[in-house]
Write a structure and sequence with these properties.
Elements (H helix, E strand, L loop, with lengths): L16 H19 L11 E6 L5 H12 L3 E6 L11 H9 L4 E5 L3 H10 L4 E5 L5 H15 L6 E5 L4 H13 L2 E5 L8 H16 L7 E4 L2 H5 L4 E4 L11 H7 L7 H6 L5 E4 L11 H4 L6 H22 L1
Parallel strand pairs: 1-2, 1-3, 3-4, 5-6, 5-8, 6-7, 8-9
Helix pairs in contact: 1-12, 2-12, 3-4, 5-6, 5-12, 6-7
């Protein structure tokens, strides 16, 4: 198994294409082993710290179960349980926890928090979500595409909705791996400009090396994104920390919904994705979410298996 070259996983751009492909192949193997009931416990004696400032169902449970299935243990620390919540400098918390655990997953708001934490941590740090990036989720989603489509290269992925942390990580994934990505976002809610600019530069460099074909585009009309798409993808209109903007966002995102009409514009065998939790009848209809094109709950399951690979690679080879 190829060892990741970098100690931390903060964004998808931290990984090379070869490393990502290796993660996907190992995920396939570990998922098959788990389904066959074959134990695999390379992390016996290892402990993972989970620092969560944001509430979580899937991220917390998937990392805890992943660590358990790999033979290790977890320590969960919420914002109210940590001295960081009482003003302790991030660099102090990072150096303290580095003496106790073998790796740390952080789920927080500002991306600068996890960057500073990783600077002072002497153990691997994994981004469980920030306002700017959600790398583990998007890596899982691309793996799910491979499961359903047999590949990612040559496919068109459509993102419809907010240019949020998920959209940013999808941009980095497309630039690194070379699939087509069209994002439909209303004015004022486009992806991060710096990430988009860097991704296009990265994609061009990959193209010059013969690794990838550049096609990352942001449009306003969801129909333009959905037309001929192999994958339709979305997220909630108002994420955690944006509750006060909910009504304003409902108006801005009117029409940015994955529904039967949008689905008809995509390829007949298109798959529908959502990272969850979903606000049914807002960004996605119940009909589509429960329909035959939906692979949403396969995405959920795959978080467990892909994160096992990330944990093994970083904790044993970081």
């Amino acid at each position: 198994m190829q060892v990741l070259q970098k100690r931390h996983l903060l964004t998808i751009s931290d990984l090379t294409k070869a490393e990502i492909d290796d993660v996907f192949e190992k995920t396939r193997i570990l998922k098959a082993r788990q389904k066959q009931g074959i134990p695999y416990v390379p992390l016996q004696g290892k402990t993972l710290g989970l620092i969560f400032e944001k509430a979580s169902t899937r991220t917390r449970v998937s990392f805890e179960v992943a660590m358990y299935q790999l033979g290790g243990n977890t320590v969960f620390i919420s914002h109210r349980d940590s001295q960081m919540g009482r003003g302790e400098p991030i660099k102090d918390t990072a150096r303290v926890l580095s003496r106790y655990v073998d790796g740390i997953v952080i789920r927080t708001f500002g991306h600068d928090i996890i960057v500073e934490f990783s600077k002072y941590s002497t153990v691997p740090v994994i981004n469980g979500l920030t306002d700017l990036h959600h790398p583990c989720q998007v890596l899982t989603d691309v793996f799910t595409i491979i499961e359903k489509k047999g590949k990612y290269h040559g496919l068109k992925v459509a993102w419809i909705g907010d240019g949020n942390n998920m959209a940013n990580s999808w941009i980095e994934a497309a630039a690194r791996l070379g699939f087509d990505l069209v994002l439909a976002c209303p004015d004022g809610y486009w992806p991060d400009k710096n990430i988009l600019s860097k991704a296009k530069k990265l994609a061009l460099e990959c193209l010059n090396r013969g690794e990838a074909k550049l096609n990352i585009e942001v449009v306003k009309d969801p129909k333009d994104a959905a037309k001929g798409a192999d994958v339709l993808n979305t997220d909630v209109w108002a994420s955690m920390g944006q509750e006060e903007e909910a009504e304003k966002r409902k108006k801005a995102f009117k029409g940015y919904q994955i529904n039967s009409e949008i689905l008809k514009l995509a390829k007949k065998d298109a798959i529908v994705m959502h990272c969850l939790p979903a606000h049914r009848e807002e960004e996605i209809t119940d009909e589509v979410m429960e329909g035959r094109n939906s692979v949403i709950f396969d995405q959920v399951e795959n978080r467990l298996h892909l994160q096992k690979v990330i944990l093994e690679k970083l904790l044993l080879g970081g």
